[in-house]
Amino acid sequence: CMGVDLGAIAAATCALALVPVGPPAEPLGQRLLWTGAAAVAVVITIAWGQGPRYQPPPPDVASLQVPGKVTLVVFSDFQCPFCRLLHPVLKEVAEQHPQEIRIRLVPVPLPGHPGSDLQALAYLCAPQDHREQVAEGFYELDVDRLVYQAVENAAVDAGVDTATYAQRLTEDSEQRRIGQMVGNLIVGQATSTIEQYGGDPSGLEACITSDETAAELQRNLERFQRTGLTGLPSVYVHNFLVQGADESLLRAAVVAALEGGKGRDVRWMFGALAALFVAVAGVGLARARRAARRA
């Protein structure tokens, strides 16, 4: 976005310079000079946007990095479609570099995703060595199907068909009941996943409802807000930032981080653009002075 915006501004600036102030018309050479400058400005901004974006994380995000490792700090929501797309890529990258790469998943439940906050709490409460399995199960979970299943179960309990019971969902008490049933299904999946991989899920429910876990989740939300980022997924690959489910950009950032690269500092782009316009303006001024002397 920055590259496109800057390119548009640069092109507009050059276009204004091409507009003749009055007769006589601006010389062809001067017009070509500014046209070339506009083209170069657009190329610079587009080229600078290629490849991973160098943006060291803020201190509280950097504190999550593992010393001596390339750490991928992943801000994600288990029900976010793009987060789901990126998760297998993150898993593959970690498996390809088991000694060099560590992943720190920071759950950020989004409003409007039923049960996403409970999923985040369950993930934080899962044993460290089984968090990846719990996360994978949550990414694959169809929560809409869980809601429908809860409605079906509630209808059976009420002794009516699903369509008839659905009419009761305008009542707050019934909405809370369905929410509780969906929550139980989510916690049940986390419990069964931990057991499936040989873990001990005892204490999971108590941890989910504890003030300490709620405070940890709140810290995650505040950490994400302080980054100034607005979309998910967002991944800090050491000193590179990848936003969205861009697989090629993520892989490029991983390679750059493993090689110890520092990427392109955007300040140099601003410097290059400024130097370009100063140079073109200087040439134009020199030509104008020569023309004035000849006249």
What topology does this entry show?
Elements: H1 2-18, H2 28-49, E1 53-54, H3 59-62, E2 70-76, H4 81-96, E3 101-107, H5 116-125, H6 131-140, H7 143-158, H8 162-166, H9 172-196, H10 204-208, H11 211-227, E4 234-237, E5 240-243, H12 247-258, H13 266-294
Parallel strand pairs: 2-3
Antiparallel strand pairs: 1-5, 2-4, 4-5
Helix pairs in contact: 1-2, 2-13, 5-6, 5-9, 5-11, 6-9, 7-9
Structural notes for this entry:
- This protein is an alpha+beta fold.
- 64% of the residues lie in helices and 8% in strands.
- It is built from 13 helices and 5 strands.
- The chain has helices at residues 2-18, 28-49, 59-62, 81-96, 116-125, 131-140, 143-158, 162-166, 172-196, 204-208, 211-227, 247-258, 266-294, and strands at 53-54, 70-76, 101-107, 234-237, 240-243.
- The protein has a 5-stranded mixed sheet, with helices on both faces.
- A hairpin with a 2-residue loop joins strand 4 (234-237) and strand 5 (240-243).
- The longest helix is centred in the last third of the chain and has 29 residues, at 266-294.
- The mean pLDDT is 85.
Descriptors:
single chain; 295 residues; alpha+beta
Number of strands: 5
Strand content: 5-15%
- Sum up the overall morphology in one term: elongated
Q: Which regions contain 5 or more consecutive residues with pLDDT less than 50?
A: none
Instruction: Give the ordered list of helices and strands.
Output: HHEHEHEHHHHHHHEEHH
Helix content: 55-70%
Number of helices: 13
Mean pLDDT: 85
Derived from helix and strand composition plus strand pairing, the structural class reads: alpha+beta
Q: Largest sheet at a glance?
A: 5 strands, mixed
- Rg, rounded, reads 28 Å
Q: Spatial order of the strands in the main sheet?
A: 1-5-4-2-3
Termini distance?
46 Å
